[in-house]
Amino acid sequence: MSVKILIADDHPLFRAAMCHALTSVEHLELVETSTFPDTLSYLEDFQDIDLLFLDLTMPGNEGLNGLAQVHALYPDVLVIVITAQEEADVMAKSFALGASGFIPKSASVECIIDAVNTVLDGETWIPPTVQVPSDSQQNSAASNASSVSDQGDFTARLKQLTPHQLKVLRMVSDGLLNKQIAYELAISESTVKQHVSAVLRKLGVINRTKAGIAFKNAMHLN
């Protein structure tokens, strides 16, 4: 049985290098996208992807927003983050948001192949030069969000949100009012208020302003 992998990256040469690196792995079917909207469209239209290589800085993907969206919409798709951002904080946030692997773009072919095999075996893969993040490290991934309560890590809590709640939170973080959110999503203002209340409860914050600030901090790559 073949495994279908989607390589989502905006650099043709890098996609070609990834495809070449994976030619030695048996029973793989590779497809490619170059923008985040195209990636979401492919996932929605075909829904047959087993593993997604996701570039954090491809067009349409702002920071870790794309990873959060994919996990909310397609929780069964395994995601390996591929990025030039090699900071430990970015990696910790990626794992907290549901990534199964984290590959710096400087990684060798051997590392890429090992990452695929490891993740498909149901385990987490990180660069061999980096220590596995401890619980305390993951819990500090969103430490800049100082308004969040002490109960766990804010970034990990984002995984509790439904796709609609995540959209509402993203719009709240952009400063949109309930009326504006209702218009953008074609839902009632009352429904928006229900989503906001649910978001605040799940994230453990006391108001929408604090939720928006914490979300932006959690999604930021630096």
From TrEMBL:
GO terms for biological process: phosphorelay signal transduction system; regulation of DNA-templated transcription. The modification 4-aspartylphosphate is found at D55. CDD domains: LuxR_C_like, REC_NarL-like. Signal peptide: none annotated. One of its GO terms (molecular function) is DNA binding. Gene3D superfamilies: 3.40.50.2300, Winged helix-like DNA-binding domain superfamily/Winged helix DNA-binding domain. Pfam families: GerE, Response_reg. SMART domains: HTH_LUXR, REC. Keywords: DNA-binding, Phosphoprotein. Residues 4-120 form the Response regulatory domain. Residues 154-219 form the HTH luxR-type domain. It comes from the Bacteria. This is LuxR family transcriptional regulator. The lineage of its organism: Bacteria, Pseudomonadati, Pseudomonadota, Gammaproteobacteria, Alteromonadales.
